[in-house]
Design goal:
- By secondary structure, this protein is an alpha/beta fold.
- The chain folds into three domains: 91 residues, Nucleotidyltransferase, domain 5 (2-Layer Sandwich), CATH 3.30.420.250; 44 residues, no CATH class; 112 residues, Protein of unknown function DUF3822, C-terminal domain (Nucleotidyltransferase, domain 5).
- It is built from nine helices and 14 strands.
- It has a six-stranded mixed β-sheet with strand order 1-9-5-2-3-4. Strands 12-11-10-13-14 form a five-stranded mixed β-sheet, with helices on both faces. Strands 6-8-7 form a three-stranded antiparallel β-sheet.
- Helix 5 packs parallel to helix 6.
Length: 272
């Protein structure tokens, strides 16, 4: 969704993408002329400070000069599980809250938004962080916002073009992970799960595979996000699912010169 479209009279060839949540933020600035990242930061907010969300963001902007720079485009990614995907054939802009009430608690005071994935004939319906949006309006005036799941799913669907086999992607983050099942630019399944232990992860992975009639001996699983081959989450998946790997970032590394770990960990931010 576009907030206050601007008339750009002087191109900077720079873009800022910020992934936002109440407890943290991450941002990356890009050179859009050469399509390369310029500055990259992760910021975790200390809950013991007992500040408001807006105060946390104001402090972050005051502490990082890149956030005060001028950009041709500012993109804000709302990262939460207050979202769902709706096929275009079933979508009604006047019924956004109805779609979300099946998997979230919805209140009358909630504001709703949607992203259109026209190429894939579906929409992401979600609840954005209104206070964070207001902060960005006051700071930049002009910005585009969308849901982090929109960025994740659209990129994985793009990468699945002409790949006829079903493939499961799992994006790991602190306290939650997303399962994305795709097949040749079709979204077969998307869901978000909270977790604490490796056993939580494998339970949801095997349950999802069972619901889709996938054989753990044959289907392919690729991990994205905050995971490595050395941690217990990868190990338990590898124990019960035969074809498990980390997402191959070789093509991405050639474009942005970042490490494989950074490209996987910040896939959503870097590919938005």
């Amino acid at each position: 969704m576009l907030v206050n479209p601007a008339n750009i009279t002087e191109k900077k060839y720079k873009k800022l993408t910020v992934k936002v949540a109440p407890g943290s933020m991450a941002f990356c600035s890009f050179d859009t002329l050469n399509q390369i990242p310029l500055a990259f930061r992760e910021i975790a907010f200390d809950p013991s400070d007992k500040k408001t969300v807006v105060e946390y963001y104001a402090d972050a902007f005051a502490s990082h000069e890149e956030l005060g720079d001028s950009y041709d485009e500012v993109v804000v990614l709302h990262d939460n599980n207050l979202a769902t995907f709706v096929p275009a054939a079933l979508f009604d802009e006047d019924c956004l809250g109805n779609y979300l009430q099946f998997n979230n608690k919805v209140f009358e005071t909630d504001s709703f938004a949607f992203d259109t994935l026209a190429s894939y004939q579906m929409n992401t319906v979600y609840i954005p962080y209104a206070d964070i949006n207001n902060f960005f309006v006051d700071t930049f005036g002009n910005f585009v916002y969308k849901h982090a799941h929109t960025a994740l799913v659209s990129k994985l669907l793009e990468l699945s073009k002409n790949v006829d086999e079903k493939k499961m992607f799992v994006h790991m983050a602190a306290g939650h992970f997303e399962i994305v099942m795709v097949q040749n630019q079709h979204l077969l399944l998307f869901n978000s799960f909270d977790y604490k232990t490796p056993e939580d992860l494998i339970y949801y992975l095997l349950f999802t595979a069972e619901q889709l009639n996938l054989n753990p001996e044959t289907f392919r699983l690729e991990f994205l996000g905050d995971i490595s081959q050395d941690d217990a989450f990868f190990a338990i998946a590898y124990k019960y699912i035969r074809n498990v790997s980390l997402f191959d970032t070789a093509d991405l590394e050639q474009k942005n010169a970042l490490s494989a770990q950074d490209n996987r960990r910040h896939f959503i931010l870097l590919q938005s």
